[in-house]
Specification:
The protein has 6 helices and 14 strands. The chain is an alpha/beta fold and 260 residues long. It has one domain (2-255): 4-Layer Sandwich (Purple Acid Phosphatase, chain A, domain 2). A hairpin with a 5-residue loop joins β13 (235-244) and β14. The longest helix has 18 residues, at 12-29. The mean pLDDT is 97.
């Protein structure tokens, strides 16, 4: 049995420092074959840098995924091509730099395919259909992987759930990110695909989805733009833990939480 840990959006310095601190011990304690983490908010709450990516992979993250804040840090469009183990959303324009997927080897030689698709409901990006993109990726890469993780970085719960059912039996895990709030619906679908609508976030939970409380409330009250600093208190790691059999089917899935 292979074991996969997916970590939800890493938020700023508190989130990434907690991952770097906790992950080596978690890998050993949970006997993990792979760790995949969304780190699109790891640099000050928006984007990522090559240096941060290196710190996460050095701590034991096998694959880093991104989302709608992929280009949140100036110059990352140059850095991404020199940053292995990291992939940007697959349904961005093909003119965007960076890998669309990663195939990560496990301890027993099994190959895990990882890619992300952005949702289209209530999202500002103009992207290709996430359903068509996922199906095309799986078809084009057939035979190159033994199990697969598809992340849907999306706002709408319905869009995430629909993709889970669409890919049931075709991949090992469909997991949602972006809303930063862990959902309680982790389950194995009838044809052997693990599913969770949102993995939650790795970062401070005394705040508003990772940001300090007062400025967020202020913006809701008056609509004025203001800085939204990353919060600092009650740091937790959220995600999902999946066991996968030799055929690439999920056997179990559960919500994961670690507290500092």
């Amino acid at each position: 049995m292979r074991r996969l840990l997916f970590l939800g959006d890493i938020i700023g310095a508190p989130g990434r420092e907690a991952v770097v601190h906790a992950l080596p011990g978690l890998r050993q304690a949970l006997a993990l074959d792979w760790v995949v983490a969304n780190a699109e908010n790891s640099a000050g709450g928006s984007g990522i840098t090559r240096a941060i990516a290196r710190s996460l992979t050095s701590a034991g993250v096998d694959v880093i995924t991104l989302g709608d804040h992929t280009w949140g840090q100036r110059g990352f469009e140059q850095e991404i091509v020199e940053t292995p183990q990291l992939c940007r959303p697959a349904n961005l324009s093909p003119r965007n730099p960076g890998a669309t997927h990663i195939i990560a080897p496990g301890h027993d030689g099994a190959r895990l395919l990882v890619f992300t698709v952005l949702g289209r409901q209530f999202m500002q990006h103009h992207v290709d259909c996430p359903f068509d993109t996922a199906e095309r990726m799986l078809r084009e890469l057939e035979g190159q992987y033994d199990c697969a993780l598809v992340e849907i970085h999306a706002e709408a719960t319905s869009e995430k759930i629909a993709l889970g059912w669409y890919l049931d039996g075709k991949v090992s895990l469909v997991v949602g990110t972006h809303t930063h709030v862990a959902t309680a619906d982790a389950s194995v679908l009838p044809r052997g695909t693990a599913y969770q609508t949102d993995a939650g976030m790795c970062g401070p939970h005394t705040g508003v989805i990772g940001r300090e409380i007062a400025p967020v409330i202020g913006r809701f009250l008056d609509g004025m733009p203001r800085r939204l600093p990353v919060a600092t208190e009650d740091v937790r790691l959220n995600g999902c833990l999946v066991s996968i059999d030799e055929k690439g089917h999920a056997c179990t899935v559960s919500r994961f939480e670690w507290r500092a």
